[in-house]
From TrEMBL:
Leucine-rich repeat-containing N-terminal plant-type domain ranges (all copies): 35-72
Official protein name in the record: Leucine-rich repeat-containing N-terminal plant-type domain-containing protein
Keyword Repeat set for record: yes
Source organism: Lithocarpus litseifolius
Record-stated family: Belongs to the RLP family.
Protein backbone atom coordinates (compact mmCIF):
# COMPACT_ATOMS: atom_id res chain seq x y z
CA UNK A 1 0.00 0.00 0.00
CA UNK A 2 2.54 2.53 1.08
CA UNK A 3 5.30 1.36 -1.26
CA UNK A 4 5.26 4.63 -3.20
CA UNK A 5 6.18 6.97 -0.31
CA UNK A 6 8.74 4.45 0.84
CA UNK A 7 10.16 4.29 -2.68
CA UNK A 8 10.40 8.07 -2.99
CA UNK A 9 11.89 8.30 0.48
CA UNK A 10 14.53 5.78 -0.56
CA UNK A 11 15.22 7.74 -3.74
CA UNK A 12 15.53 10.88 -1.73
CA UNK A 13 17.93 9.24 0.70
CA UNK A 14 20.02 7.82 -2.12
CA UNK A 15 20.12 11.23 -3.77
CA UNK A 16 21.20 12.89 -0.49
CA UNK A 17 23.79 10.20 0.08
CA UNK A 18 25.11 10.72 -3.43
CA UNK A 19 25.15 14.50 -2.91
CA UNK A 20 27.03 14.32 0.38
CA UNK A 21 29.46 11.78 -1.06
CA UNK A 22 30.31 14.00 -3.99
CA UNK A 23 30.66 17.07 -1.75
CA UNK A 24 33.03 15.33 0.63
CA UNK A 25 34.95 13.86 -2.29
CA UNK A 26 35.30 17.34 -3.79
CA UNK A 27 36.49 19.04 -0.58
CA UNK A 28 38.79 16.13 0.20
CA UNK A 29 40.42 16.53 -3.22
CA UNK A 30 41.01 20.27 -2.88
CA UNK A 31 42.29 20.01 0.70
CA UNK A 32 44.60 17.14 -0.15
CA UNK A 33 46.18 18.91 -3.09
CA UNK A 34 47.09 22.19 -1.42
CA UNK A 35 48.11 20.39 1.78
CA UNK A 36 50.44 18.25 -0.36
CA UNK A 37 52.08 21.43 -1.68
CA UNK A 38 52.60 22.67 1.87
CA UNK A 39 54.03 19.34 2.97
CA UNK A 40 56.32 19.21 -0.07
CA UNK A 41 57.66 22.71 0.68
CA UNK A 42 58.27 21.85 4.35
CA UNK A 43 60.06 18.63 3.36
CA UNK A 44 62.14 20.63 0.87
CA UNK A 45 63.03 23.12 3.64
CA UNK A 46 63.97 20.34 6.07
CA UNK A 47 66.89 19.29 3.82
CA UNK A 48 68.36 22.80 3.63
CA UNK A 49 70.46 25.05 5.82
CA UNK A 50 70.08 28.75 5.29
CA UNK A 51 72.78 30.83 6.97
CA UNK A 52 70.97 33.99 5.83
CA UNK A 53 67.70 32.65 7.24
CA UNK A 54 66.08 33.09 3.84
CA UNK A 55 63.35 30.57 4.70
CA UNK A 56 62.37 32.22 8.01
CA UNK A 57 58.95 33.13 6.65
CA UNK A 58 58.24 29.45 5.87
CA UNK A 59 56.19 28.92 9.02
CA UNK A 60 52.57 28.58 10.09
CA UNK A 61 52.11 32.33 10.64
CA UNK A 62 51.72 32.71 6.89
CA UNK A 63 49.92 30.75 4.21
CA UNK A 64 52.57 29.01 2.07
CA UNK A 65 51.57 31.15 -0.90
CA UNK A 66 53.15 34.07 0.98
CA UNK A 67 56.39 32.30 1.81
CA UNK A 68 59.55 33.88 0.36
CA UNK A 69 60.32 32.52 -3.12
CA UNK A 70 56.92 30.85 -3.56
CA UNK A 71 54.42 31.92 -6.23
CA UNK A 72 50.91 30.44 -6.34
CA UNK A 73 48.31 30.42 -9.08
CA UNK A 74 45.29 32.59 -8.26
CA UNK A 75 42.70 30.00 -9.09
CA UNK A 76 43.75 26.93 -7.13
CA UNK A 77 46.25 28.36 -4.65
CA UNK A 78 48.77 25.81 -5.86
CA UNK A 79 52.49 26.45 -6.13
CA UNK A 80 53.43 27.41 -9.70
CA UNK A 81 56.83 28.99 -9.05
CA UNK A 82 59.72 28.39 -6.67
CA UNK A 83 62.55 30.89 -7.03
CA UNK A 84 65.33 30.76 -4.46
CA UNK A 85 68.27 31.64 -6.68
CA UNK A 86 71.37 33.19 -5.20
CA UNK A 87 70.30 32.58 -1.59
CA UNK A 88 73.34 30.82 -0.12
CA UNK A 89 71.29 27.69 0.52
CA UNK A 90 73.19 24.53 1.50
CA UNK A 91 71.65 21.06 1.25
CA UNK A 92 70.05 18.52 -1.00
CA UNK A 93 67.02 18.77 -3.27
CA UNK A 94 64.25 16.72 -1.67
CA UNK A 95 62.38 14.20 -3.86
CA UNK A 96 59.20 15.78 -2.44
CA UNK A 97 59.75 18.57 -4.98
CA UNK A 98 58.11 16.16 -7.44
CA UNK A 99 54.80 16.55 -5.55
CA UNK A 100 54.44 20.23 -6.50
CA UNK A 101 52.33 19.10 -9.40
CA UNK A 102 51.37 22.59 -10.63
CA UNK A 103 54.97 23.84 -10.71
CA UNK A 104 55.92 25.74 -13.87
CA UNK A 105 59.25 27.25 -12.85
CA UNK A 106 61.94 25.99 -10.48
CA UNK A 107 64.99 28.18 -10.01
CA UNK A 108 67.58 27.13 -7.45
CA UNK A 109 70.55 28.57 -9.35
CA UNK A 110 73.68 29.85 -7.60
CA UNK A 111 73.43 28.07 -4.27
CA UNK A 112 75.33 25.18 -2.66
CA UNK A 113 73.05 22.24 -3.30
CA UNK A 114 74.84 18.90 -3.33
CA UNK A 115 73.73 15.31 -3.90
CA UNK A 116 71.81 14.77 -7.11
CA UNK A 117 68.83 15.91 -9.12
CA UNK A 118 65.92 13.74 -7.89
CA UNK A 119 64.27 11.80 -10.69
CA UNK A 120 60.90 12.77 -9.12
CA UNK A 121 61.35 16.06 -11.03
CA UNK A 122 59.98 13.97 -13.90
CA UNK A 123 56.52 14.11 -12.28
CA UNK A 124 56.43 17.88 -12.96
CA UNK A 125 54.71 17.74 -16.32
CA UNK A 126 53.81 21.45 -16.28
CA UNK A 127 57.41 22.52 -15.71
CA UNK A 128 58.63 25.00 -18.33
CA UNK A 129 61.78 26.31 -16.68
CA UNK A 130 64.32 24.32 -14.68
CA UNK A 131 67.39 26.24 -13.56
CA UNK A 132 69.74 24.42 -11.20
CA UNK A 133 72.88 26.05 -12.60
CA UNK A 134 75.90 27.19 -10.59
CA UNK A 135 75.64 24.63 -7.79
CA UNK A 136 79.22 23.38 -8.07
CA UNK A 137 78.61 20.25 -5.94
CA UNK A 138 75.32 19.20 -7.51
CA UNK A 139 76.37 15.84 -8.92
CA UNK A 140 75.09 12.51 -10.12
CA UNK A 141 73.51 11.84 -13.47
CA UNK A 142 70.98 13.83 -15.46
CA UNK A 143 67.84 11.83 -14.58
CA UNK A 144 66.29 10.04 -17.55
CA UNK A 145 62.88 10.90 -16.10
CA UNK A 146 63.52 14.55 -16.86
CA UNK A 147 62.36 13.56 -20.34
CA UNK A 148 58.81 13.27 -18.91
CA UNK A 149 58.71 17.05 -18.38
CA UNK A 150 57.08 17.50 -21.76
CA UNK A 151 56.54 21.25 -21.34
CA UNK A 152 60.16 22.05 -20.58
CA UNK A 153 61.44 25.06 -22.51
CA UNK A 154 64.54 26.07 -20.54
CA UNK A 155 66.90 23.53 -19.04
CA UNK A 156 69.93 25.15 -17.43
CA UNK A 157 72.32 22.83 -15.60
CA UNK A 158 75.56 24.72 -16.31
CA UNK A 159 78.41 24.82 -13.79
CA UNK A 160 77.34 21.78 -11.78
CA UNK A 161 79.16 18.50 -11.12
CA UNK A 162 77.09 16.21 -13.33
CA UNK A 163 78.63 12.96 -14.56
CA UNK A 164 77.88 10.09 -16.97
CA UNK A 165 76.06 10.42 -20.26
CA UNK A 166 73.48 12.77 -21.68
CA UNK A 167 70.25 10.69 -21.73
CA UNK A 168 69.08 10.13 -25.31
CA UNK A 169 65.51 10.50 -23.97
CA UNK A 170 66.04 14.26 -23.74
CA UNK A 171 65.26 14.15 -27.46
CA UNK A 172 61.58 13.84 -26.45
CA UNK A 173 61.52 17.40 -25.07
CA UNK A 174 59.89 18.88 -28.14
CA UNK A 175 59.40 22.35 -26.61
CA UNK A 176 62.97 22.74 -25.40
CA UNK A 177 64.52 26.06 -26.47
CA UNK A 178 67.60 26.28 -24.25
CA UNK A 179 69.79 23.33 -23.28
CA UNK A 180 72.81 24.44 -21.28
CA UNK A 181 75.02 21.70 -19.88
CA UNK A 182 78.36 23.53 -20.05
CA UNK A 183 81.03 23.04 -17.41
CA UNK A 184 80.09 19.63 -16.03
CA UNK A 185 81.82 16.26 -16.25
CA UNK A 186 79.51 14.62 -18.74
CA UNK A 187 80.94 11.77 -20.80
CA UNK A 188 79.80 9.45 -23.57
CA UNK A 189 78.40 10.47 -26.92
CA UNK A 190 76.37 13.31 -28.30
CA UNK A 191 72.98 11.53 -28.57
CA UNK A 192 71.70 11.53 -32.18
CA UNK A 193 68.14 11.76 -30.80
CA UNK A 194 68.78 15.39 -29.87
CA UNK A 195 68.24 16.12 -33.55
CA UNK A 196 64.54 15.76 -32.67
CA UNK A 197 64.66 18.97 -30.64
CA UNK A 198 63.01 21.10 -33.26
CA UNK A 199 62.42 24.09 -30.94
CA UNK A 200 65.98 24.20 -29.66
CA UNK A 201 67.67 27.57 -30.12
CA UNK A 202 70.74 27.41 -27.91
CA UNK A 203 72.77 24.35 -27.07
CA UNK A 204 75.96 24.39 -25.05
CA UNK A 205 78.02 21.37 -24.03
CA UNK A 206 81.21 23.45 -23.59
CA UNK A 207 83.77 21.97 -21.17
CA UNK A 208 82.71 18.36 -20.71
CA UNK A 209 84.25 14.99 -21.64
CA UNK A 210 82.02 14.05 -24.55
CA UNK A 211 83.56 11.90 -27.26
CA UNK A 212 82.77 10.40 -30.64
CA UNK A 213 81.22 12.03 -33.65
CA UNK A 214 78.88 14.96 -33.70
CA UNK A 215 75.80 13.29 -35.24
CA UNK A 216 74.43 14.41 -38.61
CA UNK A 217 71.00 14.75 -36.96
CA UNK A 218 72.18 18.12 -35.61
CA UNK A 219 71.19 19.43 -39.04
CA UNK A 220 67.53 18.68 -38.18
CA UNK A 221 67.39 21.28 -35.42
CA UNK A 222 65.40 23.84 -37.36
CA UNK A 223 65.39 26.58 -34.71
CA UNK A 224 69.05 26.45 -33.78
CA UNK A 225 70.80 29.79 -33.33
CA UNK A 226 73.83 28.79 -31.33
CA UNK A 227 75.66 25.51 -30.77
CA UNK A 228 78.78 25.36 -28.63
CA UNK A 229 80.42 21.99 -28.20
CA UNK A 230 84.11 22.82 -27.94
CA UNK A 231 86.38 21.71 -25.12
CA UNK A 232 85.25 18.10 -25.43
CA UNK A 233 86.71 15.20 -27.43
CA UNK A 234 84.18 15.39 -30.23
CA UNK A 235 84.92 15.02 -33.91
CA UNK A 236 82.82 15.35 -37.01
CA UNK A 237 82.04 17.54 -39.93
CA UNK A 238 80.44 20.27 -37.89
CA UNK A 239 81.06 22.99 -40.46
CA UNK A 240 79.26 20.96 -43.12
CA UNK A 241 76.34 20.29 -40.80
CA UNK A 242 76.06 23.94 -39.87
CA UNK A 243 76.22 25.00 -43.53
CA UNK A 244 73.37 22.60 -44.32
CA UNK A 245 71.39 23.74 -41.30
CA UNK A 246 71.90 27.44 -41.62
CA UNK A 247 71.16 27.88 -45.34
CA UNK A 248 72.23 31.47 -45.16
CA UNK A 249 70.86 32.06 -41.66
CA UNK A 250 73.32 32.85 -38.97
CA UNK A 251 74.10 29.95 -36.70
CA UNK A 252 76.86 30.53 -34.24
CA UNK A 253 78.89 27.42 -33.86
CA UNK A 254 81.92 26.63 -31.83
CA UNK A 255 83.70 23.33 -32.23
CA UNK A 256 87.00 21.72 -31.45
CA UNK A 257 89.93 22.65 -33.61
CA UNK A 258 92.37 20.19 -32.19
C1 LIG B 1 43.15 24.27 1.00
O1 LIG B 1 41.96 24.53 0.28
C2 LIG B 1 40.78 24.55 1.08
C3 LIG B 1 39.60 24.70 0.16
O2 LIG B 1 39.78 25.74 -0.76
C4 LIG B 1 40.90 25.68 2.12
O3 LIG B 1 39.76 25.69 2.95
C5 LIG B 1 42.16 25.46 2.95
O4 LIG B 1 42.33 26.54 3.84
C6 LIG B 1 43.37 25.34 2.06
N1 LIG B 1 44.56 25.00 2.86
C7 LIG B 1 45.75 25.54 2.65
C8 LIG B 1 46.85 25.11 3.55
O5 LIG B 1 45.92 26.34 1.74
C1 LIG C 1 57.24 33.33 11.14
O1 LIG C 1 58.04 34.16 10.30
C2 LIG C 1 57.95 35.54 10.60
C3 LIG C 1 58.76 36.30 9.56
O2 LIG C 1 60.06 35.77 9.44
C4 LIG C 1 58.42 35.80 12.03
O3 LIG C 1 58.32 37.17 12.33
C5 LIG C 1 57.59 34.97 12.99
O4 LIG C 1 58.10 35.10 14.30
C6 LIG C 1 57.60 33.50 12.61
N1 LIG C 1 56.67 32.76 13.42
C7 LIG C 1 56.98 31.63 14.03
C8 LIG C 1 55.87 30.96 14.77
O5 LIG C 1 58.09 31.12 13.95
C1 LIG D 1 55.40 13.03 -2.03
O1 LIG D 1 56.71 12.61 -2.39
C2 LIG D 1 57.32 11.68 -1.54
C3 LIG D 1 58.72 11.37 -2.07
O2 LIG D 1 58.79 11.36 -3.46
C4 LIG D 1 56.44 10.47 -1.33
O3 LIG D 1 57.04 9.57 -0.44
C5 LIG D 1 55.08 10.91 -0.84
O4 LIG D 1 54.25 9.82 -0.62
C6 LIG D 1 54.48 11.87 -1.82
N1 LIG D 1 53.07 12.21 -1.56
C7 LIG D 1 52.58 13.06 -0.65
C8 LIG D 1 51.10 13.17 -0.62
O5 LIG D 1 53.26 13.71 0.10
C1 LIG E 1 60.68 7.27 -13.72
O1 LIG E 1 60.03 6.89 -14.91
C2 LIG E 1 59.62 5.53 -14.95
C3 LIG E 1 58.97 5.26 -16.28
O2 LIG E 1 59.81 5.65 -17.33
C4 LIG E 1 58.64 5.26 -13.84
O3 LIG E 1 58.32 3.89 -13.81
C5 LIG E 1 59.26 5.64 -12.50
O4 LIG E 1 58.29 5.51 -11.49
C6 LIG E 1 59.76 7.06 -12.54
N1 LIG E 1 60.44 7.30 -11.28
C7 LIG E 1 60.46 8.45 -10.67
C8 LIG E 1 61.11 8.48 -9.35
O5 LIG E 1 60.02 9.45 -11.18
C1 LIG F 1 69.79 30.37 -14.82
O1 LIG F 1 70.29 31.10 -13.73
C2 LIG F 1 71.54 31.73 -13.97
C3 LIG F 1 72.01 32.32 -12.65
O2 LIG F 1 71.04 33.15 -12.10
C4 LIG F 1 71.34 32.75 -15.07
O3 LIG F 1 72.58 33.39 -15.35
C5 LIG F 1 70.83 32.06 -16.32
O4 LIG F 1 70.56 33.02 -17.33
C6 LIG F 1 69.56 31.28 -16.03
N1 LIG F 1 69.21 30.47 -17.19
C7 LIG F 1 68.12 30.65 -17.92
C8 LIG F 1 67.94 29.72 -19.07
O5 LIG F 1 67.28 31.50 -17.68
C1 LIG G 1 64.39 10.78 -32.46
O1 LIG G 1 65.61 10.60 -33.12
C2 LIG G 1 66.03 9.27 -33.29
C3 LIG G 1 67.45 9.25 -33.88
O2 LIG G 1 67.71 10.37 -34.67
C4 LIG G 1 65.00 8.56 -34.15
O3 LIG G 1 65.37 7.23 -34.39
C5 LIG G 1 63.66 8.60 -33.41
O4 LIG G 1 62.67 8.02 -34.18
C6 LIG G 1 63.25 10.00 -33.04
N1 LIG G 1 62.13 9.95 -32.12
C7 LIG G 1 61.11 10.79 -32.15
C8 LIG G 1 60.07 10.61 -31.08
O5 LIG G 1 61.01 11.68 -32.96
C1 LIG H 1 71.32 32.16 -27.54
O1 LIG H 1 72.19 32.33 -28.63
C2 LIG H 1 72.13 33.63 -29.24
C3 LIG H 1 73.02 33.60 -30.47
O2 LIG H 1 74.34 33.27 -30.12
C4 LIG H 1 72.55 34.68 -28.21
O3 LIG H 1 72.46 35.95 -28.77
C5 LIG H 1 71.67 34.55 -26.98
O4 LIG H 1 72.12 35.44 -25.97
C6 LIG H 1 71.66 33.15 -26.44
N1 LIG H 1 70.71 33.04 -25.37
C7 LIG H 1 70.97 32.40 -24.24
C8 LIG H 1 69.86 32.40 -23.23
O5 LIG H 1 72.03 31.85 -24.01
Amino acid sequence: MNTRPLFSLTCHAIFLLFLSLSISKFSLATTLSNETDKLALLEFKSHIDSPLNVLASWNDSFHFCHWVGVTCGNKHQRVIGLDLKNSKLVGTISPHIGNLSFLRSLNLASNSFHGGIPSEVGYLTRLGNLNLSHNPKLGGEIPVNLSHCSNLQYLDLQYNDLVQGIPSELGFLSKLQILNLRNNHLSGRFPPSLGNLSSLQNLSFLYNNLEGEIPNTVAQMKSLKSIVVSENHLSGLMEKIIAELGEGEEVEASINHH
